[in-house]
Amino acid sequence: MAYLIFLGPPGAGKGTYAQRVHEILHIPHVSTGDIFRDIAKKEDELSKRIREIMERGELVPDELVNEVVKRRLSEKDCENGFILDGYPRTVNQAIFLDEYLSTAGKRLTAAILFDVPEDVVVQRLTSRRVCPKCGRIYNLVSLPPQRDELCDDCGVKLIQRDDDKEETVRHRYRVYLEKTKPVIDYYSKNGVLHVVDGTIGIENVVSKVLEIVRRGKNDTCEE
Ligand code: AMP
């Protein structure tokens, strides 16, 4: 059992690490960004509103995010653990999650912050491309497709997500600093925060995460 929160700026690699940890620990990767991107594809009023918020690089209102997360965490596959990626992003959300977990008789194993400087984030995100057909993610610098800018699986031309354009990335970084730094302080005060250098390579980062989980579980056992 491991209840994990992955924190860090957009482009810190949270999704990639979460995917690896999911494969190793068999706990679901819950990405609020992915959930909202799905909702944004629909054509109703709510989806349109969310699409506009995301295109501006702003945050979706807490009440709505909390409701969506509560619904997802109540599903059966989250019973024995989860990796929250992109949530909580505000102190309000962190408090809501604490209350939800305590009602469910669960305890956070760790909140892990992946530390990556702004310029590295900008470089990583502006070179990210995605296949519009299958959703596979590439990076023109670190994980390029085999041919031009075409998906290896579908042969379709890769696209840049609107929120990966440089201006939006810098704005999202500023929003992150302003809104999410208090969340980091919150978990630091609660004694569950761990900081991992997000520039040391995927496998090294994942090893550090697994070590933190192992220690977090031991802490729980000792109580
Ligand atoms: P991400 O892929 O995690 O960067 O999320 C993409 C976008 O989804 C963000 O820029 C927000 O507009 C929205 N979003 C995702 N998670 C949250 C959250 N916890 N609180 C508010 N908005 C969110």
Task: Output the keywords.
223 residues; five-stranded parallel β-sheet; Rossmann fold; binds adenosine monophosphate
Report on the architecture of this protein.
The chain has one domain (2-116, 178-222): P-loop containing nucleotide triphosphate hydrolases (Rossmann fold), CATH 3.40.50.300. It contains eight helices and seven strands. The protein has helices at residues 14-25, 32-40, 45-55, 62-73, 91-103, 118-126, 166-189, 202-222; strands at residues 2-7, 29-31, 81-85, 110-115, 128-130, 137-139, 193-197. The strands form two sheets. It has a five-stranded parallel beta sheet, sandwiched between helices. The model has no long low-confidence stretch (mean pLDDT 92). The structure holds adenosine monophosphate.
Order of helices and strands: EHEHHHEHEHEEHEH
What's the main sheet like? Answer: 5 strands, parallel
Taking Cα atoms only, what radius of gyration do you get, to the nearest Å? Answer: 17 Å
> Taking strands numbered 1, 2, ... along the chain, how are they ordered across the largest sheet?
2-3-1-4-7
CATH structural architecture: 3-Layer(aba) Sandwich
Bound small-molecule species = adenosine monophosphate
Strand content: 5-15%
Share in helix: 40-55%
Instruction: State the distance separating the first and last CA atoms.
Output: 16 Å
